[in-house]
From TrEMBL:
Similarity comment: Belongs to the Nudix hydrolase family.
Stretches assigned to the Nudix hydrolase domain: 14-132
The protein, known as: 8-oxo-dGTP diphosphatase
Keywords recorded for this protein, A-Z: DNA damage, DNA repair, DNA replication, Hydrolase, Magnesium, Metal-binding, Mutator protein
Record's catalysed reaction(s): 8-oxo-GTP + H2O = 8-oxo-GMP + diphosphate + H(+); 8-oxo-dGTP + H2O = 8-oxo-dGMP + diphosphate + H(+)
The protein's Enzyme Commission number: 3.6.1.55
One biological process term in Gene Ontology: DNA replication
Record-linked CDD domains: NUDIX_MutT_NudA_like
Originating organism: Edaphosphingomonas fennica
Molecular function per GO: 8-oxo-7,8-dihydrodeoxyguanosine triphosphate pyrophosphatase activity; 8-oxo-7,8-dihydroguanosine triphosphate pyrophosphatase activity; 8-oxo-dGDP phosphatase activity; 8-oxo-GDP phosphatase activity; metal ion binding
Enzyme class (EC, first level): hydrolase
Length: 140
């Protein structure tokens, strides 16, 4: 029998969102100093907590990170990334969302930026995010 190349316990599931404004721009946040990959631009989101659904985790993360309220029903599954990350394997589930309440604030990030996909190609983003840019472009 062939051995699986990854133990399930090493998979890290992360949920993130492309918040899209009326001009077709997407919100990115900059990872703060002191964290892995500090200074890189990423989609808001984070890890699932035990027992949380992906949508509930994202609703929570968006409140914690940006101070906005999003309905789970407004989170549309968009695409995903699958990428080795240190000694783990990252499964990044990316949603798209065009409706939220409140004005996003950088409560945890060092900065926020509304960017068009074309601009995103020129930004430093985590390796898992790079293949997602073209897919987001096609979705908008
Ligand atoms: N939110 C988010 N995380 C991403 C993206 N791309 C990517 O590789 N990641 C990785 O997925 C993980 C997200 O987890 P997180 O935000 O909860 O964790 P963190 O590293 O900030 O640290 P923490 O454990 O102190 O919360 C990080 O390892 C982060 O580098 C992305 O676009 N958005």
């Amino acid at each position: 029998m062939t051995k699986p190349d990854l133990a399930i316990s090493r998979i890290m599931t992360v949920v993130a969102v492309a918040l899209v404004d009326g001009d077709g721009r997407v919100l990115l946040q900059r990872r703060p100093e002191g964290k892995a990959m500090a200074g890189l631009w990423e989609f808001p989101g984070g890890k699932l907590e035990a027992g949380e659904s992906p949508e509930a985790a994202l609703v929570r993360e968006l409140r914690e990170e940006l101070g906005i309220d999003v309905e789970a029903a407004c989170l549309a599954p968009a695409t995903f990334a699958s990428e080795p990350l240190g000694d783990r394997h990252l499964l990044l589930l990316l949603y798209a969302c065009r409706k939220w309440r409140g004005v996003p604030q950088a409560l945890e990030a060092s900065a926020l930026k509304w960017a068009r996909p074309l601009e995103m190609h020129g930004l430093d983003m985590p390796p898992a995010d790079r293949p997602l840019i073209g897919l987001i472009e096609a979705l908008l």
